[in-house]
Amino acid sequence: MRILKIREQIIDAIRQFFKSQGFIEVETPLLVPYPDPSPFNEVFEVSPVLDKRAFLTPSPEFFMKKLLAAGSGNIFQICKAFRDSPELSPLHNPEFTILEWYRINADYKDIMTDCENLLNFISQIAPISPKPPISLTPPWQRISIRQSFQKYAGVNLDEFLDPQKARQICQKKGYQINENSTWEQLYHQIFLNKVEPKLPKEKPLILYDYPAPLAALARLKPTNPHYAERFEFYLAGLEIGNGYSELTDEQEQERRLKKDLEARKSLGMRLFPYDKDFVKTVANLPPCGGIAVGVDRLIMALTGAKTISEVLPFPAQRIFSP
Amino acid sequence: MIESGDLKKGICIIFRGEPHLVVDKTFVSPGKGSAFTRAKLKNLKTGAVLEFTFKSGEKIEEANVHTIEFQYLYKQGKDYFFMNPRNYEQISLPEEMIGNFKNFLKEGDIYKIMVLEDQPVSLIPPLKVNLKVVETEAGAKGNTVTGATKPAKLETGYIVQVPLFVKTGDTITINTETGEYVSRV
């Protein structure tokens, strides 16, 4: 009950923060015909609507971008999102609360500043109690992914971007590799074993400039297209939010959606058509930055909870247990 | 050979050439990444515990282990001595291989011990044990506050919080993972 009350106060503080800056709070569909085809999230399919296949949305991003393209200006949303992972974990509930906001005429650096200000604001309004205590006062520490690989894993990421080199480096470090291992797996093998456990936990941390193959819906860096303008922020060692300078190139967008669907096919995941209307939308997007924040994880970090179940009144682990 | 997705708590694997017990495992899925399995592994030779994150589909060799029942005899320094009741063979295990279960070991009781290539390596703690309370204050009469507890000393010397109705001489069940009271027998 204690955490439930803090949960409400944190969510109220988020609303207050954005509304006081003139952001419009929006609602977009949770039941959708064309979900984000990212090969890293499986989606829940439900009964058809008007004879068309229907899914529970894994993220409100596509519809929020349609509003931006239609001239909404700065917007935010707090809603449910659904991802079907093969297993539950202390950090995963199949249904979770997501916060997304988009700022126009802005890029990922502006969104990083928003994150710092938002957390600072929450800490002044809600009775948070991170364990161990974390200082949320801006500015936060910012490390590029390239620096973090060099510093914690002794790996030169520029070299690692070459798939052949990546295999050699992983092999030398004793990781198991077979012909099916993808570059993304090799990258995360190093990141999860060597980098993430060593990231500083006593202060919030921003990791930025992800390799282009992990760009998702981020714009590539104009000065170095091997990297994308994407960042993640961490609190107490937990991955909380993932932001971008949003991709506004419709051809590149279409190419990435097709590639995602190919990847889904080779992984034996659910297949569905991509949203052609969304691709057209991307061409009309104003320059903007945006982010998705896992609200349940944010509450975990701010209350010192060890599992997502502690911050949910009815965790899936319990309501679906046999 | 098993795959990383088949890792389970309690099984033994060969990791970097050494036998390891899987102490814990969780599913990990990075923001924009595929599924991984993070395992907490205990080296069965040194007792050292480490974490490793396996990508999905990784092949892992299972260690050739079996279990034998031994009777606990006594403790000397940091070594715990056991005897195989069938052939009277005596063995010892270092404290690291007993872990927190040392609080619940009772002389004369039978326990399962994991054996790797004829070498006893680790005790397999039962999830629950029944132990006698040797010392606890008498509960104050009329105190019916739900959830109120008091300390109780068990026959192994371990002190645990118990509900007020538990008396000296009672036998109680303890969860050996959390070290907490479960019920009165």
Q: Give the CATH topology of the largest domain in chain B.
A: SH3 type barrels
- Could you tell me how far the N terminus lies from the C terminus of chain B, measured between alpha carbons in angstroms? 42 Å
What are the secondary-structure elements of chain B, in order, as H or E? EEEEEEEEEEEEEEEE
| Structural class by SSE content of chain A | alpha+beta
Q: For the terminal residues of chain A, how far apart are their CA atoms?
A: 25 Å
Low-confidence stretches of chain A: none
- How many H/I helical runs of chain B? 0
Q: How would you describe this protein?
A:
The complex is a heterodimer of chains A (322) and B (185). Chain A has a domain at 2-140 and 253-319: Bira Bifunctional Protein, Domain 2 (BirA Bifunctional Protein, domain 2). Chain A is 37% helix and 23% strand. Chain A has eleven helices and twelve strands. In chain A, the strands form two sheets. In chain A, strands 1, 5, 6, 7, 8, 9, 10, 11 and 12 form a nine-stranded mixed beta sheet that branches. In chain A, strands 2-4-3 form a three-stranded antiparallel beta sheet, with no helix packed on it. In chain A, helix 1 (2-19) crosses helix 10 (295-303) and helix 2 packs across helix 9 (276-283). The mean pLDDT of chain A is 95. Chain B is an all-beta fold. Chain B has strands spanning 2-3, 12-15, 18-28, 36-43, 49-55, 59-62, 65-76, 79-83, 90-94, 110-116, 119-124, 128-136, 149-154, 159-163, 171-175, 180-184. Chain B has a six-stranded antiparallel beta sheet with strand order 1-6-2-3-4-5, with no helix packed on it. A five-stranded antiparallel beta sheet of chain B has the order 9-8-7-10-11, with no helix packed on it. In chain B, strands 14-13-12-15-16 form a five-stranded antiparallel beta sheet, with no helix packed on it.
What layout of secondary structure does this protein have?
The complex is a heterodimer of chains A (322) and B (185).
Chain A (H helix, E strand, L loop, with lengths): L1 H18 L4 E2 L5 E2 L11 E6 L2 E5 L4 H9 L5 E8 L12 E10 L3 H18 L15 E4 H9 L3 H4 L2 H10 L10 H13 L9 E7 L8 E2 L2 E12 L2 E8 L4 H17 L9 H8 L4 E7 H9 L12 H4 L3
Parallel strand pairs in A: 1-5, 7-8
Antiparallel strand pairs in A: 2-4, 3-4, 5-6, 6-12, 8-10, 9-10, 10-11, 11-12
Helix pairs in contact in A: 1-3, 1-10, 2-9, 4-7, 6-7, 8-9
Chain B lengths: L1 E2 L8 E4 L2 E11 L7 E8 L5 E7 L3 E4 L2 E12 L2 E5 L6 E5 L15 E7 L2 E6 L3 E9 L12 E6 L4 E5 L7 E5 L4 E5 L1
Antiparallel strand pairs in B: 1-6, 2-3, 2-6, 3-4, 4-5, 7-8, 7-10, 8-9, 10-11, 12-13, 12-15, 13-14, 15-16
